[in-house]
Amino acid sequence: MLTAPLADPVRPAGARRAPRFFSSEINIMTDAPVPPQGGEQPQVPSIRVMGQYVKDLSFENPNAPDSLRQGAQPQIDLSVDVRARGLGEDMFEVELLMSAKAGRDDKAMFIAELSYAGLFQIQNLDDQAREPFLLIECPRIIFPFARRILADATRDGGFPPLMLEPVDFAALYRRQLSQRQPGEQGGGEGGQPVGNA
Fold first, then answer.
1. Are strands 75-86 and 195-196 parallel, antiparallel or unpaired?
2. Rounded to an integer, what distance in angstroms lies between the CA atom of residue 49 and that of residue 142?
3. Mean pLDDT on 77-106
4. Minimal CA–CA distance to 92: which of 114, 115, 117?
5. Preceding omega of 65 cis (within 30 degrees of 0)
6. Upper half-sphere CA count for residue 134 (Cβ side, 13 Å)
7. 68 and 158 in contact (C-beta within 8 Å)?
8. Which CATH architecture has domain 46-180?
9. Were both Cys, which of 39, 45, 115, 116 would link to 146 (CB 3.0–4.6 Å)?
10. pLDDT of 109-156, one tens digit each?
C-alpha cells in the first residue's frame, strides 16, 4: 500500500523533496577499488614527511667587493642531484644536492652549494614503486624549501636572489635509468633503493 508523504513543516510549500530510496542497498559508482569479499583489505600506501633539514650549506663570495659591481650579465652554472638511502624498515632519507656557480669575465662572483634532505616514512609501497617515488616525488616535495634557502643565501651574499625554475625530477630519474648497466638494479643494501637521479 502506498501512502502520500506527510507535509514538511520546515520546507516551504511547493519546494521539492529529495528522492527517497526504499531499497536497503544503493549502488554507487566510484573509482575506488572494491575490497575483496571476506578477505584481507588491501594495504593503502602511507607516506609521511618526518622532517626536513639542511645537511650542508656553503656560500662563497671570493671576489667581493669587486664581484658586487654592476657589469655584464653573469654566466650561471646550475646542477641538481638526488640521492636516497634507506634508514630502516620504512624510513628513508632523500637528499637534494644543488650547486650554483656564477661568474663574469673568468672571475667567480659566487659559489653556492646546498645539501637539503627530507626524512620520509613509507609504508605499504611495493619495491617496484618505491624507487621512483623516492627519486621523483620526494624531491618534488622538498624542492620548494631548498630553492628558498638557496635564494636567501644568494640575496644575503649581496646578489639578487637566485630563483630556480621547477625541476623535472621524472626526467632526471629517466636519465639515471638509461645510464644504468643492463640488468643492474637500483636497490642497495637489504633491497633499499639508493642512487642518484
1. antiparallel
2. 9
3. 91
4. 117
5. yes
6. 32
7. yes
8. Roll (3.10)
9. 116
10. 899 999 999 999 998 888 888 899 999 999 999 999 999 999 999 999
- Domains of the chain, by residue range, sit at 46-180
Instruction: Identify the band that residue 181 occupies on the pLDDT scale cut at 50, 70 and 90.
Output: low
Contact 193, 134 (CB under 8 A): yes
Q: What digits encode the pLDDT tens for the residues 27-62?
A: 445 455 555 565 566 678 888 999 999 999 999 988
For residue 35, the model assigns a pLDDT of 55
Burial of 109 (0-12, 13-18, 19+ CB in 10 A): buried
Nearest CA-CA partner of 197 in 118, 94, 45: 94
Which grid coordinates belong to 185?
Answer: 638494479
